[in-house]
Amino acid sequence: MTYARITGTGGYLPDKVVTNKDLEAALDTTEEWIESRTGIRERRIAADDEFTVDLAERAALQAIDAAGIERRAIDLIVLATTTADQVFPATACLLQQRLGNGGYPAFDVQAVCAGFLFALGVADKFVRTGASQCALVVGAETFSRIIDWSDRRTCVLFGDGAGAVVLQAGDAPGVMSTHLRSDGQYKDLLQVPVGVSRNFSKVRDGGAFTTMQGGEVFRWAVTAMSDIIDETVAANDLSKDDIDWLIPHQANIRIINAVGARAKIPRDKVVVTVGEHGNTSAASVPLALDQAVRDGRVRPGHRVLLEGFGGGFTWGSALITM
Ligand code: COA
Questions:
Q1: Nearest C-alpha to atom 14 of ligand 1 is from which residue?
Q2: Is 249 among the residues known to form the active site?
Q3: By C-alpha distance, which of 222, 261, 267 is closest to 245?
Q4: N-terminal to C-terminal alpha carbon distance within the chain
Q5: From start to end of 56-201, where are the E strands?
Q6: Fewer C-beta neighbours within 10 Å, C or N terminus of the chain?
Q7: Distance from the Cα of residue 279 to its chain's centroid
Q8: Whose CA is nearest to atom 16 of ligand 1?
Q9: pTM above 0.90, yes or no
Q10: Ligand 1 interacting residues, C-beta cut-off 6 A
Q11: In whole angstroms, how far apart are CA 244 and each of 53, 144, 176, 238, 292?
């Protein structure tokens, strides 16, 4: 049986740090409100001349280096983003051009903050079926570009960044299972209500912003992310004690703590980066994974449960043996 194994991880955060104090100076908010309600202390924001593909490239090169492979070994790119550089080509194709080799499939997936799980789920199936031997899976966002920086209800939550993994075919697991879910009936609760086909003039005029019903999103995120932990563990005939690390989407420390408590996963097994990263949407999970690999918490052989939740709603998980 062929499995897809993560052989390298990478991450990149833009240089510019925006602290809660910076936001307090610009908005009707306080450092204390933001940290106590979200756990976020600071976030990174891309420079004006820095684009999603730039972030993706930095994370991808680090993952390729960590995997010890040549760029030409890559035969698939699946890139999750909500903030593509262009309407087309896909940001995955822009990244492919940067990496300097082509001819294999490179495409974007759009599942907002669950995007990396969707990208990983798709790439896993390519590798398991033999269609790909060495996939690059990326979550990259310049989410700050679709935020209204005068709206205190949303702007304090988000940041920019990118994370990446190399997935290689092998005999041992690997990605043990992926679980992907969507429910479009909740489309209005978290959205950017304009796009190419609808109200494009607002995009042109700088009015393409995220809107959110925070309380509803909070409740749904907790339920969906804790239920999918149970589903993932059961699908692999494991118990929660078999999980070495939970790496949840980094949206709000209160969501992360509530998910951990409902799923009965101890806090010292949960990787948390939201304080320094904010919510980087599709980049949040691979960035947190990369951080935990680099600081030595996640080690070869560990069982890691990744999970994400985003607009749509979309949500998903992956159980991985590192
Ligand atoms: N600073 C100060 N006050 C703020 C504020 C800010 N940055 N943002 C909102 N408020 C105010 C609101 O205007 C509201 O005031 P009102 O009651 O006078 O109208 C009040 O705070 C809301 O307070 P509360 O209901 O206690 O907030 P909360 O505990 O629900 O926290 C969120 C709000 C947004 C932090 C929380 O709902 C949340 O995190 N939701 C999930 C969001 C998310 O993760 N989205 C992405 C998912 S992928």
A1: 153
A2: yes
A3: 267
A4: 17
A5: 76-80, 106-109, 134-141, 161-170, 175-182, 190-191
A6: N
A7: 9
A8: 153
A9: yes
A10: 29, 33-34, 37-38, 113, 152-153, 156-157, 212, 214-215, 217-218, 221, 251-252, 279, 309-310
A11: 32, 33, 14, 12, 12
